[in-house]
Amino acid sequence: MSQPRTPVFAANWKMCHGPVETGAFVGRFAPRHVRRDDATVVVFPPAISLPAFAAAVSGRPDLEFGVQDVHTEVKGAHTSGIAAAMVPATGATWGLAGHSERRREFGDTDADVGRKLVRLLEAGLRPVLCVGETLEERESGRLETVLHTQIREALRPLDREDRSRLVYAYEPVWAIGTGRTASPDDAAEAHAIVRDRLAQADGCDAEGSVILYGGSVKPANIEALLAASGVDGVLVGGASLDPESWASICAAGG
Ligand code: PGA
Q: What is the pLDDT of residues 36-73, one digit of tens each?
């Protein structure tokens, strides 16, 4: 029997909130957010702000945090790269891989994403594998193929035990930062595709896997999205940058 899935509220700050703004954000968010035992809250600040985030949440172990990206290599001559092994010393316990902005702006391939998952797992971090289709892929009827390929290729280098440690985020590219949100039915359909694909993958616990929805999530649509079948939480960009808005999102579904 699979364990019940604990909802996750994840904030992806992208290239926003440097160390100073990070401290100010936590100072405003933490008092507004009542600790929840029924959900996990995790923020992905820019890497340079991880120490500031750690310092600001030092009295709040319920506020978890992670790194937005790591290098595919273990260490070495890779100017600007961040090795996964360097991350735990900051106190971060999570890592994103495969965000569509990494794929689009930095050319991360599915194979790169798989290698990043390996690095994150080696470092003891909890990976969130992000997948999602472009509008053109959706409109040409390739939603299922795209999601299947992204999942299959990213999981390829992982052994059975590692596969059971992943969290997934379905983020339709056309809904990211556009104000255009997938309808709860669209999200439910895509989450079912992701879960079906996990059921076919060796070592994955499809029913126990947490699958987040991301793409223009905000206080006004969070409840409807969380109520959609198979949606176990959210990955939020723009609406997570404001402490009040993020606190209101993190209070949803309770
Ligand atoms: P958005 O970003 O909430 O601003 O659409 C979501 C994401 O990219 O994770």
A: 999 999 999 999 999 999 999 999 999 999 999 999 99
Q: Which of 171, 173, 211 to mutate to test the pocket of ligand 1 (most atoms within 8 A of CB)?
A: 171
Q: What's the one-letter identity of residue 137? A: E
The answer to the question of residue 15 being in a domain is: yes
CATH code (residue 197): 3.20.20.70
Per the domain annotation, does 1 fall within a domain? no
In this structure, the dihedral spanned by the alpha carbons of residues 224, 229, 235 and 240, taken in order and rounded to 10 degrees, is: 20
Of 9, 20, 125, nearest to 69 (Cα)? 125
Structural domain contains residue 56: yes
Print the domain residue range for 33: 8-250
| Residue whose token pair is 């969070």 | 222
- The answer to whether the beta carbons of residues 173 and 142 sit under 8 Å apart is no
Query: What's CA 146's distance to the chain center, in Å?
Result: 18
CA gyration radius, the chain: 17
Query: What does DSSP assign to residue 87?
Result: S
Positions of the chain with pLDDT lower than 50, given as ranges: none
Residue 231, helix vs strand vs coil: coil
Residues recorded for the chain: 254
Q: Which atom of ligand 1 is nearest to the CA of 236?
A: 3
Residue closest via CA to ligand 1's atom 3 equals 237
Residue type, 129: L
User: Domain total for the chain?
Assistant: 1
8 within 8 A of 226, measured Cβ to Cβ:
no
